[in-house]
Amino acid sequence: MSKRNPVYDFKWCPGCGDFGVKVAIEQALAKRSVERSEPIEKTAVVAGIGCSGNLVHMQEGPQPFGLHGIHGRALPIAYGLKSNRPDMNVIVVSGDGDFLSIGAEHIGPQARRNLDITAVVMDNGIYGLTKGQASPTTELEVVTSTTRYGKLDDKMHPLEVYLGLGVGYIVSEMSSRVKQLGEAIKEAMDYPGFSIVHVQSPCTTYNDTYALLKGDEKKGIEPLAKPISEDHDPSDFMAAMAIAKGRSVPIGLLYKRAGESVPAHERLAQAKERTKPRESSVQQLLASMTI
Amino acid sequence: MSKNLVVRFAGEGGQGVVGGAELMASAAAQGGYHVLTFSTYPSQIKGGPAWGQARISSEPVLTPGDYLDVLVAQNRYAYDHNVEELREGGIVVYNSEEFEIEDAGRALGLPADKMAREAGNPLASTIILIGAVAKMAGVDLAAIEDFITKRWTRGRAGDAAIVEGNIAALRMGAVEAEKSGLMLEALEAAPTHAETRILIRGFEAACLGAMAAGLESFIGYPISPATTMLTFMEANLAGEGTFVGQASSEIESIASLVGAGFSGKRVMTSTAGPGLSLMGEGLGLAWMAEIPLVVADVQRGGPATGLPTKTEQSDLISAINPGHGDMSVPVIAPGDPEEAFFAAAKAVNWSERYQGPVILLTEASIAERAQDIVMPDPSTVSRETRVVSTGAVGNLRYDGDTISPFPVPGGPGAYVANGSAHDGQGDTTHLPEVHVKMTERRFAKLKVLNDGTFEAENSGAEIAVMPWGGSKGAGRAAWNELHAEGVNIGWYYTMYVNPLPEALLAELRTKKLVLVPELNYLGQFSGILRQQGVNARSITQYTGLPFKVTDLKSEIRDRMESK
Ligand SMILES: Cc1ncc(C[n+]2csc(CCOP(=O)(O)OP(=O)(O)O)c2C)c(N)n1
Ligand code: SF4
Ligand SMILES: [Mg+2]
What domains sit in chain B, N to C, each tagged with a CATH number? Predict the structure, then answer.
């Protein structure tokens, strides 16, 4: 909505990786909308708090519904929304601090429920909005305003965490690959279950990792980001884990659980169908207590 | 003839003392008596001191009763710690397999477990005890036999044998009582009733009230004494478009409820103090983003883990201000199970009407209490629905000075529901003039919650008593007695504790003194009343137990004299 309120709208720094993610999401939503011939209002974007979460206010073109809540709670908000309205397309936009630090406790439950939503995580290895403190994905020894001696805590490896928590569909991408990212988000949304698109989205102000990710041929610096090999079988959990544990940042579809994915709302519908639970009206329930 | 019979079954957790009191109450209710139960037990599954109490009366009852007519003691500890509450002339029935009472004046040793085992019906020891108590109190045994027959006739093969065994057990107890010669003043005959009555517990009433108002979704996390609401909803909130879920924490409960309320549904959760604290930030989000939802806080003793299974009224300030920042969450605090039904319905309706969070504030003693009430008619409960956007104003979700149409996801009027300070269309802004306008808008919305009612009696008196929540019963009983004795004191009561009805406040401000019985140390409600210009003073208690009418009455007298 940035166009409407130029006086006070939030702005990302020039070069911020989140710009690419925003465009990718717009493309994914537009494509899905056309494919399913659904109005954009059938989509809701649930945003975390951080530079990344502000994406929900920046989207251009046809507007989906949005909910910009509180730090770390985008996933549970999406749980309440999607469980009550399985007809809605729900995506979560979040940052590495929002998703992996304060909100980390919510990943496992959605994975186990197989909630049918897609989380797009913008990982810049830093707390951007609060001006440059260490996040779980900040590299070891990096000096930030809260890591005076260089970061002492080990770096978290989010892809390993997702695999370990039982997430059924995991993509690792880069914000600069807008087109591929848009397609990856669209495909993740089409997956019937919980999916995460983990995006390297550099913070040009506090942790500029573009050079590292892309490397520099002239200087002989190997790129950190490397496409996942063509012959990787995404349904092979151990292979996915091996890639997640590797030094480089893999790019592509890391994991897609083998077999049919039955999302949370389907599991519930099927269980109800199977057990045919007794349904009583308030009147009947009161009457059952008659003295 | 006596109007009341108060029986306490005391022993250890896991010995069925709470169940014993409830069974006795059910049987008496079936016989036409008014009943009310109260229990206290430790936060563990087996062991620890526990007791359940049933008050059985030929008249409507307000409290569990101050003094016991019969104490059923399962062990020495239970006897030692409860006997001082036995009234003069009361009887002790004790488990003589466990211990002996040396100076056994009005006591009957009854090895009920052994008797039940020997009769080949080991589960019937409670029924033996009930038989003994009923006989001593002159309760009609045939009515209890009738109850037993109904209760255990469930269409199963072994029904007849079970019924027969239990009736035999009942008679066994009665015979022992008769042999002992220990008798109480006989209980008056049960009244007859024109209306259909039900025996309901507070938590059931609260759940059913919310359902009567059209509740569609419930998400919660287990915590005493609020878990019963979650499990009741899991079992009973059903039908097209409904959802019940167990969250992974109260943080998840409240956040998911925000998502559910945003989705357009009528939604609710239940929790107790520790969970309410965790919900603070999420409740602030609901207030800020204007999302309808209801949180039922079933108060227990606090702070921290506190007294998980005891009763207290110490969450009032937290309920009104559960999170940081400028907010005032509407709070409805029912005083008994019957009110809990209507309070829960109103809470759902208020949340829809003003588009924001509402707290249904109950407490352990109300939630767990079983009481006979006239069956409420759910068809008289209104179902209010938030004003829904038709898309006419585009995405101006937060436009204007008060309630504005709510765009339902999937329909027209897409907007960003925003927990950051925002303008009329939901865009984040920190401009001072916009924050001023939007803050005032959120408070102005409370003005539509102006249908709160209150009770007022003898309102000419300069001094009044005004309890809140679960202290209503004891407060009213104390007032009834004082009033009957000719003491000039007014009675006020409302379950609409925030916002308080304006007309009530106006009356209270004219009083010389308003005495507020409440179960907390700080005197939370009287503090709120003083802020509103009422000269209110609390009568506090913080034992984890409800007030006794006698204590309250004498305290009120003292305060009136020393004012
Ligand atoms: C409960 C709470 N704690 C702390 C904050 C302050 N805060 C806002 S954003 C943020 C971190 C954001 O980091 P990240 O999620 O990585 O987002 P980024 O800005 O890097 O996109 C913090 C700590 C807050 N808003 N709420
Ligand atoms: S601080 Fe970093 S993450 Fe935030 S907008 Fe600027 S570049 Fe992007
Ligand atoms: Mg970050």
Answer: 4-180 (3.40.920.10), 199-380 (3.40.50.970), 387-444 (no CATH), 455-562 (3.40.50.920)
Compare all CA atoms of chain A with the CA of B407 and give the residue at the minimum distance.
Answer: A65
Measured from the CB, is residue A187 less than 6 Å from ligand 1?
A: no
Which strands make up the sheet holding B416-418, listed edge to edge? A225-227, A249-256, A169-174, A195-200, A118-123, A89-95, A43-47, A65-68, B416-418
Q: Tens of pLDDT along B318-366?
A: 999 999 999 999 999 999 999 999 999 999 999 999 999 999 999 999 9
In the CATH scheme, what architecture does the domain A18-263 have? 3-Layer(aba) Sandwich (3.40)
3-state SS record for B224-293:
CCCHHHHHHHHHHCCCCCCEEEECCCHHHHHHHHHHHHHCCCCEEEEECHHHHHHCHHHHHHHHHHCCCE
- Do the beta carbons of residue B268 and residue B218 sit within 8 Å? yes
Indicate whether B543 pLDDT > 60.
yes
Residue B327 to chain A, least CA–CA distance (Å): 16
| Contact predicate B452/B500, CB 8 Å | yes
Lay out the sheet containing B86-94: strands in order across.
B107-109, B86-94, B68-73, B4-12, B49-57, B34-40, B370-374, B197-201
Predicted confidence (pLDDT) per residue in A70-83, tens digit: 999 999 999 999 99
Interatomic CA distance for residues B44 and A177, integer angstroms: 57
d(CA A11, CA B211): 45
Cα separation, B220 vs B242, whole angstroms: 14
Nearest Cα residue to atom 11 of ligand 1 = A127
Asked if A67 and A90 touch (Cβ cutoff 8 Å), the reply is: no
* CB of A137 closer than 6 angstroms to any ligand 1 atom: no
Structure confidence at residue B301 (pLDDT): 95
Segment A113-141, tens digit of pLDDT: 999 999 999 999 999 999 999 999 999 99
| Residue whose token pair is 């009147």 | A283
pLDDT-derived band of residue A1, with 50, 70 and 90 as boundaries?
very low
Mutate to test the pocket of ligand 1, among A129, A131, A198 (most ligand atoms within 8 A of CB): A129
**Does residue B444 surpass a pLDDT of 50?**
yes
Q: What is the ipTM of this complex?
A: 0.97
3-class DSSP state for residue B311? coil
**Residue A2 reports pLDDT greater than 50:** no
Distance CA B6, CA B200 (A): 19
What residues are paired with B490 via a beta bridge? B464
Structure-token pair, residue A46: 């649930």
Cα–Cα dist A148/A133, whole Å: 10
